[in-house]
Amino acid sequence: MSQAARTIESEDIQEDSADCLSCASSNNISSEQTKETPLPWDKLSVLLAVRLSEPINATMILPFVYQMVADFKVAKSPKDIAFYASLLFASFSVCQTMTVMYWGRLSDRIGRRPVLMIGLTGYLVSFLMFGVSRSFAWALTARCLNGLLAGNVAVIKSVFAEISDDTNRARMMALLPLMWNIGSVGGAAIGGLFADPVHQYPNIFGDVKIFQVFPYLLPCLIGCSITVFGLAMGIFKLEETLVREPPVRKPTVSSSSLATEATALLPGAETIKQHTVWDLLTPTVIRVMSTNVVMCLAVAMCDQAYPIFAASDPSDGGLGFASRGIGISMAISSVAVLYLQLVAYPRLERKHGALWCYRKGQIMLIPFCLALPFLSMLASRLEASINSQVVLSMPSTWMNMTADELVLWVLLIALLLARTTGMVLAFTSINLLTVNLAPSKSDLGFMNGAQQLAMSATRIIGPVLAGSVWSWSIKHTFLYPFNSHMVWVLCAVLTGLSLQLTYKIPDSVNTFAAGSCKPQSTEQV
Question: What is the pLDDT of residues 153-181, one digit of tens each?
Fold first, then answer.
């Protein structure tokens, strides 16, 4: 073989070796890789306990935020309550957007564990502040502080990627939205069942003065107790997963070219370096982030619109539910989460890939958005019974539902189940796709931080836009789709746009780039 051919071949092998530093041998692929590695439940149990606090605290306010803003008397009219409620909800994301990239990048430097502990402490303090809010300004301040310290989700995604491999990464990543959904169920139920306990349970809490002064403190205390549990688990059992590579002595100028080439061929001979932002922003990354932004904007609008829609009077295009009814509907609709996350999604992802699952999830969200507001027509026929909350006051009275009430609840839960299924498919997939795009494990913190930044930005715009569109639409008497359906039609359009963007994404995103190895030439040099 000529010297030129030898040089070219050596350069090719050296490039492949740099791309596969984590592989012991790129020539041999063990059959064990095709068998799924058992999940490390000793580590996962701690991480899931840490993760649970955020969704509980985030969704707990949804059932009572409308009534809370009404109690603050900051809105000039009932039709303006939705706007102020959306501001309160969006303030968390405004502040999270400012810091989430910092927390992700900081975890790449000082480690995952200390950043997670800071985040949990922030959740604890800020949510206690929110529970004792007696004015809109105080509640807004507490939500902002919560957002500034909320960087845990991006860091936990990085930890999951670091403790997983190609055979179990999909199943492990499915646990993240699983915990979000479980936390959302628990948060909605806690918020709906324990808000304003003096009036909901006068026989138990009627004489408790602290809950007379702070009607929304009890659900916040319950949420804080879960945060304390996660903090304790993190302090005593959470292990650091960030591996810091020791510096490698560079070859001297006097070293022979043969020695330099041989050194480059050795696994782990080079230190894995973080890529620059511009290196990471490839066309595929930009496309994935773009569809993620549009989809998350639609979901953020739906998340804000549903409690407002459910709490508004049927005459304004809503359902007329009180906090209890909103919490129960959100909790019941998520009963399928365990099966979807632990059984259905991993099977679908292994068979079709994360990109296919992402598309199917969005396809399911579109009919939900278009069909849900039509339930207000049925609620209008039941306005008196719905407002009195007789059916929802005690579980023993649920069997006394009229036929119209039963139809309303069956249709509502069916639509919310479809939404839950779509959310599981979409968000589990986008989490997996984001991790797959990281060219090295040292860039996982940045990639997950960038995704969380995009999601946080949409959670700023989404709630405010949903609240503003809802308030505007019910103040006017325009025809469909510019009536109370307008916010839901806009959500469906945005989801359709996000779906269209996915067809420009290559199937290569289904592969974990940081763990993939390209086979090298077996020719001797």
Answer: 778 888 888 888 777 776 777 677 778 77
